[in-house]
Amino acid sequence: MSTPEPFRVEIPQADLDDLAVRLARTRWPDELPGAGWSYGVSKDYLMELVGHWRTGYDWRAHEARLNEVPQFTTEIDGQTIHFLHVRSPEPDATPLIVTHGWPSTVYDFLDILGPLTDPRAYGGDPADAFHVVAPSVPGFAFSGPTRETGWGVGRVARAWAELMRRLGYERYGAQGGDFGSIVSPELGRIAPEHVIGVHVNALANASTPAGPGVLDKLSGEEREQAERNQKWWYAHSGYATQMSTRPQTLAYALNDSPAGQLAWNLEWFVDWDPTRTERTPVDRDTVLTNVTIFWLTATAGSAARLYFESASEAWGRRPAPSPVPTGVANFPGDRAVRGLAELSNTVTHWSRFPRGGHFASLQAPDLLVTDVRDFFRKLGAR
User: Is the pLDDT of residue 320 over 80?
Assistant: First the structure.
């Protein structure tokens, strides 16, 4: 057993200097006149953001913010696992493991850690407190590159179960968004005797039908929604197709060009066209911090492998039914269909919000925290 060791983010200045040089030497492609965002990330938008990254963005400030949070590393199943672990001042708080998605890092959770762990200090009910564990997914950021094949959703979920056991948490909740919305329910499937409930946002595998005859199980309105989702996904899924089939080919470009890595990660953060989005904008320094973390840890390529590993594991198949109570929060841009979600989850809570977005912990942290509290309070978590 590997005992968790304290961890601090301490990036050598030479690495930051190298990043600045590479940004200054970006070799820009041409762009068709008037193309805007119709062919992908707008050149004007990206050039302005790269300029800010090089001359206006302060990595050290964000590094210091990360280091205000207790961080640790441990080894599970041969893989380094980095995680935040913030215990509540309320001794009877409910343990909660929170999982990020792509292209995120645990930095996304900094605004929700305080309200979740210490609701009393934020005007809330201390009975809603959580002890929060937020791991970096294997292959992402400070968990470092994966060292062998096979790190798909199931293996990540098994690692999370071991991490919580190692931390002494016998009964706990799980929360996640984007890829975390796939990992967290899987944790409930493999450890239902330990997981009291699963709360997800940006539910990623309940928007389009998987398998024959699935549409026939939906109401007419849900069927129409799923069909619209299929058309939308066809037009927006290029990134996922590449990462789930040929991630190594992509890795060379992402690992060599910071501007290229920023462009690859950017489309989801800005909702494709930031001039016409319905979602709450993500702060540009937060976008740059996530991208900078990937760059400095050289993990953009290994993070992409999660899609490949999950595709070979279960992509396109409906997950097995889970007996664990599940709550689903829907924010602008989320496309989950309740009928599809209920094929694989025991859905006991379904909410929809008028503001926020796919990255709810960044775009509507107050609403996300409130919904997490509401869901687990109904379960009598304490």
Answer: yes
